[in-house]
Amino acid sequence: MKLYSSQVAPSPRKVLVFIAEKKIENIEVENLDIGKMDHKTPEYKKIAPNSRIPALVLDDGQVILETTAICRYLECLYPEPNLFGKNPMEIAEIEMWYSRVSFELMLPLMHGFRHTHPHMSALEEQNNEFGLAQRELAIKSLKYYEEIIKGNKFIACDKFSYADIQMTVSLQFLVRLNRIDINDYANLSKYIGNISARPSFSV
Question: Exposed/middle/buried for 127, CB within 10 Å: 0-12, 13-18, 19+?
Answer without folding.
Answer: middle
